[in-house]
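Dissemination and training. As part of the outreach component of the grant, students in the summer workshop were shown how a complex can be specified as a set of sequence lines and then modelled as a single object. The example used during the hands-on session is reproduced here so that future cohorts can follow it. Participants entered these lines:
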Amino acid sequence: MTLPVAQAAARPLLQVRNLRKFFPVTAGFFHRAVGQVRAVDDVNFDVYDGETLGLVGESGCGKTTTSRCIMRAIAPTSGQILFRRKNEKIVDLAPMTRAELRPLRAEIQMIFQDPFGSLNPRMTLLDNVGEPLLVNGMKNRAERTDRVAELLRLVGLRTEFMHRFPHAFSGGQRQRIGIARALSTNPRLIVADEPVSALDVSVQAQVLNLLLELRSRLGLTFLFVAHDLSVVRHISDRVAVMYVGQLVELAPAKALFRNPRHPYTAALMRAVPVADPRVLVAEAGLKGEVPSPANPPGGCYFHPRCKFAEARCRQEAPALREVAPGRFVRCHLAEKLDLPTSSG
Amino acid sequence: MASNGPSASPLLSVRDLHVSFALDEGLVRAVDGVSFDVMPGRVTGIVGESGCGKSVTMRAILQLIDEPGRIESGEILFECRTGAADGGSFETIDLSKLPRHGARLRAIRGAEIALIPQEPMAAFSPVHTVGDQIIEAILLHHRQWRTGGGKLSYRDAREIVVDLFRDVGISMPEQRVDAYSWQLSGGLRQRAMIAMALSCKPRLLVADEPTTAIDVTTQAQVLALLRELQRRHGTAIIFITHDLGVIAQMANDVVVMYLGRVVERGPVDAIFHAPKHPYTRALLRSIPSIVGETHVDLPTIAGNLPHPFDRPPGCPFHPRCQEIIGPVCSASVPQLKSLAGGQGVSCFLHQDLADTR
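and obtained this result:
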């Protein structure tokens, strides 16, 4: 089954503009602010109707903070998060208060990483999945039960399970329950933060297939945050790569994996161990460590680890620019480099 | 990798190991008849999903199983050095029969068989410097370094640690020896852990998911380091992971486990290019690759891992198996059968059915 890929002409559902989230670093008895962690630093991207945008990067790169800002689980330091509502009105989520956000919550839902921590162990499936419905005004219990049964069928669970508690289910089944709950309010945008990384390989494939199927059946739009490149490549239409709080590359998934334009993207891909003993990953890849977002290096944040770095990279911070239609790269040398990948 | 023909005798031989946990709800057979060999100087990868018993097997080798778990039966034969670190004579002892807290086992742990745990943050004590923790191990196992019998001084041990740190690629080793584990980044902490594991010149290194908790670029560095150290010292490694990519890149021999049993074992190339067991085949098909077709349905393994109290009768994989051949699969348990080329598989597809009662 091949799924339709979103057309580039589609309209953006979500537009993230100059998003910044800084956390203060405090010290001493009075918790004086002595610095700040630039967890998300001037991030810009669009998510189009019906597409899946993958957001990848290593731990500490700001991908989860970005998704939490979009969910407005935390308030961004500055920037705009423009969301097109069901009634076609474009609203900015960034400055909204809790009360203002409440009616929007039904339209943006989240799938969490940990299927064990994200379900209330003292509520049955009916209550766990039905709670968003109750909160959004579906007061009639019979009506709610019907809707929960429909949702459970949609994610491939038997409706008899409705009165059981989460502990009776395996990790993969729990993740399906979490997906059913996210779908309960008919959202338009789903933010999935590492939805399969806690699952075993054999179950991971089932959940990925379910997400692909739901997307084509319900026309959902996904922001898919993950660190596993092969998973992101499998499910995404476009991919954004983050490094130390910034986007370093944004491109259609196929093009990005075939021909990365940023040295970090290429290094990230080469670091993935290939499940074939005849394809040996020869070199150790990147030297050094990811710099701290509290104290990033001058110039390009990647220059201390980049083997192509020139004098200019050490002094001048590159901007994210469009080097080919739909391909954005934050590198001075994007046009000159011919970057090898393991995927050829 | 050091080349050792199949004629060499195994360094470690696990034979029909059974480990169970007696819980209030019933008996969990975490390891249910596992056998495999680890050859000197080779990397043996143990791969399997959660609950397959790979970590329990590793803990059993070092007798680290806590109550209510216990080794029910089986043998863990280890070719033990009896004399000094270099040279000396060897004897084969059964680790599973040694007293858990005895001096004999304490002398083996760390010195002969060392462990690299999954979570280096939890493995180091936060109130002692990493250097002191490694120095402690070296002083306890001083015979590994001083063959003459004279004791090592603290100063000598500290110098050894600085050299080890340099060996595993830790920059500024003199300063890092005095660092606390929480002052080190994830990659450095794992390097320090590797230095600690190597500190007493073990002949067998057990690495339990050593790169699962760290990022992919750091993982590549740590794997390259382990490969290089293995080549240089000829240490045998048992590499436990759920990541098939890591197994393909690291192992010489692979053991595939499912629900406490070995379903297939063999040289790495055979496992990845000529898998015999339906579980191995399904597992390899179900991982999204960095090169394959995208946005298509991945082949899956139907169903879920059974609950530990609810083990299926017969072959543990039969309820999820696509190549099931008949009632024999649910009636009796297939035994591991050796095939050509060092491969072994426990599946009725590859057995003469007349052999089984």
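Chain B has a mean pLDDT of 86. Students were then asked to discuss how this feature might be tested experimentally.
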